[in-house]
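WARN retry 2 of 3 for item q-0093 after timeout on previous attempt; input resubmitted unchanged.
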Amino acid sequence: MGWQTWASWGSNTALSALTAAGILLPHQPPPRSVPASYDQPVATAMIDSENSLFVTATATAARTATFRFEVDTGASDVAFRRQDAARLGLNPSRLAYDMRFDTSNGVSRAASLRLRKLVIGSCVLHDVDASIDSGNAFDAPLLGMSALRRMKVTIENGALALYCG
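OK item q-0093 returned
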């Protein structure tokens, strides 16, 4: 039996003793189950006709650029196409494509990098693992788990909501 149940069965004397000892504080609101920053989404998106979800975010590597990301919970990292490297201030021919990824389009090689900052709505994530694909294995940059695991993600009634945590 937990102390709250015991206290509710006990006498007023027991409740007074718990309150006096600082164990039970009268009229204390229950703790929040999620941080206050989870109250409002920082980005929302509707599932499109191809069952994809897209959000706009700004990434900073050597340079800052805004991209339309496809939300992809199957992607380990935030992933860019080779053609996106220059917008981030990177020379794609000078990158070491030494990472191997199994994708829905087959095996791909990628170069790893760390984004200094990724801004999604009012949410600012620092030091986000990312990669640049050696080719163009996907149609848009991918917002993968290196960013999503730092956020709360909900999908209800065909709508995605991202919350900053």
